[in-house]
Amino acid sequence: MTSIIAKRKAVHGQLVQQQRRNEALEKDMVQLEALANLGSATAMIAHEINNLLTPLTNYAELSLKHTDDRELAERTLRRTAKNCKQAGKVMESILSLAKAGCGEKIEAPLLPMINAVFDCLCRDFTKDGITVEVLVSADLQVYASPVQLQQAIMNLVLNAREAMLPHGGKLTIAAQMDSNGALIKISDTGCGIEQSEMSRVFDTFFTTKHKKIAEQSTCGEHSRTGTGLGLALCKKVIDAHGGTITVESHPGKGTTFTISLPKK
Ligand SMILES: Nc1ncnc2c1ncn2[C@@H]1O[C@H](COP(=O)(O)OP(=O)(O)OP(=O)(O)O)[C@@H](O)[C@H]1O
Ligand SMILES: [Mg+2]
């Protein structure tokens, strides 16, 4: 009899110990998850700051080559000020993605965000044979964090441009409202995505850009390879908005990314 009681006590003691171990492991897991989120947010901030700094380097170098061109110097400084301001906002805003949610959302017109993307990129798309068509009405409003949505669109535009090098093509950005919210489509007539790669394009660090993109460009811009963070950021941003981002592609013909953002 006593041995049964003693055995029960021992089992109970082991159970209590195991429960404590489980609780400690759960705590570690939460902490590790927070650290992983912080790690990917930090990599994404670096990626977005690089997206904003790269065009400035090209501009500054051009300006240094033509020191007597006052208008070019002024344009360079204006763009530097603008992109630095955006970089500051990006740091704060993308860091908030590491915690749950996307931070502050407001109702704001979409068109100025798209225009700001092209301003920040400081690139003449026509020099690469790319025609840009923006079919977005000035009064179309989205419920979003403008800083984050702007960076997501910037990555989709950069990918579309890179997919169309070196032959050029057409980039179309269209948006409309439907009963659920806003529908934004970014299409290009570039190289397209192979069927076998479609399920991986949103994965962090998935890239096919191992070759130097600048070798294909006519702009003489700085060479770079892909890091595979652009679409991962887009997905993180749109998920945090409660929206969806999907892709449709035809190899050799082009690609369309569709973002759906819920109403307020
Ligand atoms: N519009 C597009 N046309 C063709 N392929 C695309 C397009 N957008 C994305 N991809 C494919 O998806 C991959 C991942 O894109 P993502 O933007 O995440 O990374 P990346 O462009 O390679 O590098 P970076 O981190 O500099 O953006 C690309 O390497 C490319 O293979
Ligand atoms: Mg990219």
Can you put this structure into words, describing what you see?
Helices cover 51% and strands 18% of the residues. By secondary structure, the protein is of the alpha+beta class. It has a single domain (2-262), classed as Histidine kinase-like ATPase, C-terminal domain (Heat Shock Protein 90). The strands form 2 sheets. The protein has a 5-stranded mixed β-sheet with strand order 2-4-5-7-6. Helix 1 (2-65) runs antiparallel to helix 2 and helix 4 (146-164) runs antiparallel to helix 5. 26% of the residues are buried. Bound molecules: adenosine-5'-triphosphate and magnesium ion.
Task: List the defining traits of the structure above.
Heat Shock Protein 90; 264 residues; alpha+beta; single chain; binds adenosine-5'-triphosphate
